[in-house]
Amino acid sequence: MNKTNTEAAEFVSKLIGQIRTEDKFEVIVCPPFTALEKICDITSGSNIKVGAQNAFYEDKGAYTGEISVNMLKDIGVEYVILGHSERRHIFQENDELINKKLKKVIVSGLTPILCVGEKLEEREKGLTFNVVEKQIKEAFYGLTQEEASKIIIAYEPVWAIGTGKVATPNQAQEVHKFIRDLLKNIFNEEFAKNTTILYGGSIKPNNYLGLFGKTDIDGGLVGGASLTEDFVELAKIMKEIIE
Ligand SMILES: O=C(CO)COP(=O)(O)O
Q: Which domains does the chain have, with CATH numbers?
């Protein structure tokens, strides 16, 4: 819930031109619903893509306050974040609901970015892998391999979101590898290899290099740093790493 329509438009207009993407990596901005249409217009024809922060699983009807995937598609949105920890913990979204939304987003042809991650007390009790495994298995429930191949996964340890406490590259890599191995078990090695797994949680230009250097970390889901010039800095770092 950051940036009004006007602020988002001003910010993204500045990003275009400052951010150069390559075939190997994409830059997606996910503003609030109120700014989506304008940001889709501004970024149209540029190298920046647009995602929503949530969506509902029904097409239309009496669901006051909800936004359907068709509404998003109609204005040019291509990605949808689902199961963000704030949706799970502040708005009580459970794995079953996230699974329904995920199915809807996939069938609609949009690309879901599925967030998973443990809370601090779960990590301290040694439950990180159990939590992440349950979230992924329940989100994937009933999906074919082809459907599941559309999903981008974002590992976001809840204790690292907005806290300034970033996971160390080794802590993040350990969970990313666990997720990739899990995907191998659910489907196969090829599927696991081709799935994009992002890390999110207090990413800043000064800590991203170490994270992105790890084998199983394919990119970032950036919160606070995506609202400032730091985002341009991060995109430059990505480009340097890839080249
Ligand atoms: O939740 C996040 C992105 O979705 C991460 O937020 P921060 O980068 O502010 O920790």
A: 5-242 (3.20.20.70)
